[in-house]
Amino acid sequence: MQSDDDGTKLSLRIPAPARGEHPPDRVRYISRAGEMHKPALDEKVERIALMRKQLVRVIDDDGQAVGDWVPDLTVDEKVRGLRDMMLTRAFDARLLRAHRQGKTSFYMQSLGEEAIACAQQRALRPGDMHFPTYRQQGLLISSGYPLVDMMNQVLSNEFDPLHGRQLPVMYSAKSHGFFSISGNLATQYIQAVGWAMASALSGGTELASAWIGEGATAESDFHAALVFASTYQAPVILNIVNNHWAISTPEDFARGASATFADRGYGFSIPALRVDGNDYLAVYAASQWAAERARTNLGPTLIEWITLRVGAHSTSDDPSVYRPPDETERFPLGDPVERLRRHLESIGEWNDERHESLQAEVDTQIADAFAEADAHGSVKTGDVGSARTLFDDVYAEVPRHLREQRERMEEST
Amino acid sequence: MTAMTMIEAIRDAHVVAMERDDKVVVFGEDVGYFGGVFRCTQGLQERFGDHRCFDSPISEAGIVGAAVGMAAYGLRPCVEIQFADYMYPAYDQIVSEAARLRHRSAGDFTAPLVVRMPTGGGIYGGQTHSQSPEALFTHVAGLKTIVVSNPYDAKGLLIAAIEDDDPVVFLEPKRVYNGPFDGHHDRPIVPWSKHPLGEVPDGHYTIDIGSARIHRAGDEVTVLAYGTLVHVAQAAADEQGIDAEIIDLRTLVPLDVDSIVASVRKTGRCLVVHEATLTSGFGAELCATVQERCLFELEAPIVRVCGWDTPYPHAHEWSYFPGPARVGRAMRDVVSQ
């Protein structure tokens, strides 16, 4: 058989990480604030197809809210949003310091992406269930979950609601619509779809909201979730938080050659939006739109939130090794707190004095909560609850073999 | 009482559980309209509607993952994996999620679900339709693992599993779906209708999860078995004329240690049989348990007869399968020592 072999060796495209030199094209197809049309809830997926390439933005560079995505929020609600984000940021800063003080084993902050969790929490209703990743502490904080309980868990002390069983940031709060966090990536995505299916099967009214980082969309459970959500038209919001970094791996490795993450929705006929995740008003509006679609049995919506992980992946990470030093400054969508602040200023409802006053109030609230939690000690000081509870909750009732093992543990300690 | 196959008993268990509790939902590949490739869910969709029993995409991770979410919501999903061999994509959802949800959330969320899977060989299914993965589940804290051997147990244990508040892996040896099998591939399966164990009570009953059953009482040697091997052990004992006490474990976790210990103390000898591969199989756990609790009452070393440490072969499955010849020889050896 004749060969057409011309000697060309095959090669692969290996996406290049920034390695501290050249930031990749961070925000593709960036749109102007107000540019994006807001479609009807039941618009055909083909007709909103381009939204998966562009970007829903509301707050412009001057702080003005423009376009038909402007949400119907009162000034008080906007100030509350600003407060939620500032509280989340202050919480992170204090707990990060607690790690540096040797009071906790581990921490993960959400610096730079506070708007997404805080605004979506406010756009959904009590009874809805979020299936978060480890970077949505803003969901809990903006829902009013007790800060001291969160801090007790981070410190793993005697009052840790999860009895020292989980990593410090892997909260669980059914009462606040916050599903228990797993360390295994993407598993919660299909669970959220199942939860939403159960709500519909039961004739319920509650939605599920699935959360994932852009890197974890490479996991197969993400794809299983999209198949199920699309097949059964489940009442679920499918969030992809694109903060550009999966530890040191840039988004390029999970995204595919030239796609957006929102493109993943199109193949399943799931309406998909890309949204400026550092724009509190855009996040609120898009979340509200997706929630209304779900509540009226129009099925799932996929949203890619564009943001930037300003901090390290975790306290075990050193981002200076792999990312450009000026990346935050060059990020075109700015800082979510500053943008909402500027918006409130632009409508004459905010000024430096009020901002400083709110910052002082938030700082005091965090300091007081931390003082209370810290008084209970931490895993580092050995002030943890009884190890006896290790054997609880493995099963509904403690079976014989675990009773025996618990006795053996107690005999030996 | 009605004479039933194990398939019919499993179907009946679904009906009873679904009638008693409208939170029970059944789904999986082909289980809805078609009634499952083994027909265990036949008629459920017609009877309970397509919101109680429905087909799913061919995605095992999706099936179990969705079931975890449903269970967390408050439903009681009972899902089918078409063959146990296909559960590997769902393994993470079973072991990292369903098994640990209660513990990691301190009881905030729970996952009361059942994952049913046809297991074992003897149907010329080759290496991808013949596996016995029970040890992959028994090693995991937070799961309960059941292997059934007859229609009565299958119905009572499946209802118990669906009503249980913990995640349960429910393994159904397909070689005994239609009748007890004595391990001789060239003989017909004895239909359950001609077998006393095929009699199944009508309506609701449960069997305690964690209770073993003395399948055949005897004094010479204790045989610890489950699933298909219960029947093979009986054939071997009958053929060898050995007065073996065969214990059908039924539940591997939690294990009925008391029944095992009582029997081994009585007979002084122990043979462990299963179809799964030998190394690190559940038989190793059984041997260790007997050794820890009965060493000084043993009159002979504990012996294991299991599948070989190879993948399950298509054309040579009757060489792989621990049939009555291998089990009988081991039984004789243990008794003669």
UniProtKB/TrEMBL annotation, chain A:
Keywords, comma-separated and alphabetical: Oxidoreductase, Thiamine pyrophosphate
Region listing for Disordered, in residue ranges: 1-25
GO molecular function, one term: branched-chain 2-oxo acid dehydrogenase activity
Enzyme class: oxidoreductase
SUPFAM superfamilies tied to this protein: Thiamin diphosphate-binding fold (THDP-binding)
Domain Dehydrogenase E1 component intervals: 84-377
Chemical reaction(s) catalysed: N(6)-[(R)-lipoyl]-L-lysyl-[protein] + 3-methyl-2-oxobutanoate + H(+) = N(6)-[(R)-S(8)-2-methylpropanoyldihydrolipoyl]-L-lysyl-[protein] + CO2
GO biological process, one term: branched-chain amino acid catabolic process
Matching InterPro entries: Alpha-ketoacid_DH_E1_comp (IPR050771), DH_E1 (IPR001017), THDP-binding (IPR029061)
Requisite cofactors: thiamine diphosphate
EC number annotated for this UniProt entry: 1.2.4.4
Pfam families, sorted: E1_dh (PF00676)
Function: The branched-chain alpha-keto dehydrogenase complex catalyzes the overall conversion of alpha-keto acids to acyl-CoA and CO(2). It contains multiple copies of three enzymatic components: branched-chain alpha-keto acid decarboxylase (E1), lipoamide acyltransferase (E2) and lipoamide dehydrogenase (E3).
PANTHER family from the UniProt entry: 2-OXOISOVALERATE DEHYDROGENASE SUBUNIT ALPHA, MITOCHONDRIAL
Family as reported in the entry's similarity comment: Belongs to the BCKDHA family.
Protein name: 2-oxoisovalerate dehydrogenase subunit alpha
Source organism (scientific name): Ilumatobacter coccineus (strain NBRC 103263 / KCTC 29153 / YM16-304)
Automatic annotation (TrEMBL), chain B:
Keywords: Oxidoreductase
Chain segments annotated as coiled-coil in the UniProt record: none
SMART domains: Transket_pyr
Domain Transketolase-like pyrimidine-binding as annotated: residue spans: 4-179
EC number, as in UniProt: 1.2.4.4
Named cofactor requirement(s): thiamine diphosphate
Domain of life: Bacteria
Gene Ontology BP annotations: branched-chain amino acid catabolic process; response to nutrient
Entry-linked InterPro entries: THDP-binding (IPR029061), Transketo_C/PFOR_II (IPR009014), Transketolase-like_Pyr-bd (IPR005475), Transketolase_C (IPR033248)
GO molecular function (one): branched-chain 2-oxo acid dehydrogenase activity
Name of the protein in question: 3-methyl-2-oxobutanoate dehydrogenase (2-methylpropanoyl-transferring)
Native source species: Ilumatobacter coccineus (strain NBRC 103263 / KCTC 29153 / YM16-304)
Encoding gene, per UniProt annotation: bkdA2
